[in-house]
Amino acid sequence: AQTVTQSQPEMSVQEAETVTLSCTYDTSESDYYLFWYKQPPSRQMILVIRQEAYKQQNATENRFSVNFQKAAKSFSLKISDSQLGDAAMYFCAYRTSYGGSQGNLIFGKGTKLSVKP
Amino acid sequence: ETGVTQTPRHLVMGMTNKKSLKCEQHLGHNAMYWYKQSAKKPLELMFVYSLEERVENNSVPSRFSPECPNSSHLFLHLHTLQPEDSALYLCASSQSLRGAGEQYFGPGTRLTVT
């Protein structure tokens, strides 16, 4: 079975600086998808960024980028120019490409990010 | 109203009560999900519904009963719950069960069982 591990329960960053959140996963599959979701306090969870495993190029979305290391099964999230609104729980998630009951998201435990003004 | 909505947002119930959580998605998606979010634990998938397939997580106790009358609505019926069932219950939807499609989440129902 696939597992997702986020080893940093809490992280802190100074406003305008850069922070990297770690995520590792375990799978025997070669084709899958990886996601980072953000859950602000008392607000809805939203997708930050996604990566298809077959793509070598790291995904980027404005200030958010990933470092996808397939061989190492690592998928870290880098937030540049951190803003106060980035404070939230961040969840790393894995999804097999096969669909059906196996195609559901498997989440890590999350990393709580605080942004200091 | 857009996105995924959930009602009620907060619910307090006794162990002998029967209540239902409601989820509605306005995105034209074909798949809907119930998750349980407890402190310091990963999100736990409870149930999945789609036009093509229905999937249940076999580890979900029978005191939780899902219902999906159509592709836009999803219910979670609760009866004789235990205090350890207190959690945030999240509903989500996606276009399908396959591919890299995003899951859209509702705001959740904060459930407290007394």
Description:
The complex is a heterodimer of chains A (117) and B (114). Chain A has 117 residues and is mostly beta strands. Chain A is 0% helix and 51% strand. Chain A has no helices and 12 strands. Chain A has strands spanning 3-5, 10-14, 19-21, 24-26, 32-39, 46-52, 60-61, 64-69, 74-79, 88-96, 106-107, 111-116. In chain A, strands 2, 5, 6, 10, 11 and 12 form a 6-stranded mixed β-sheet that branches. In chain A, strands 3-9-8-7 form a 4-stranded antiparallel β-sheet, with no helix packed on it. In chain A, β5 (32-39) and β6 form a beta hairpin. The radius of gyration of chain A is 14 Å and the shape is globular. Chain A starts with a strand and ends with a strand. With 114 residues, chain B is mostly beta strands. Helix content of chain B is 0%, strand content 54%. Chain B is built from no helices and 11 strands. Chain B has strands at residues 4-7, 10-13, 18-25, 31-37, 44-50, 54-56, 64-70, 73-79, 87-94, 104-105, 109-113. In chain B, the strands form 2 sheets. In chain B, strands 2, 4, 5, 6, 9, 10 and 11 form a 7-stranded mixed β-sheet that branches. In chain B, strands 1-3-8-7 form a 4-stranded antiparallel β-sheet, with no helix packed on it. Chain B is globular. The model of chain B has no long low-confidence stretch (mean pLDDT 89). Chains A and B meet through β5, β6 and β11 of A and loops of B.
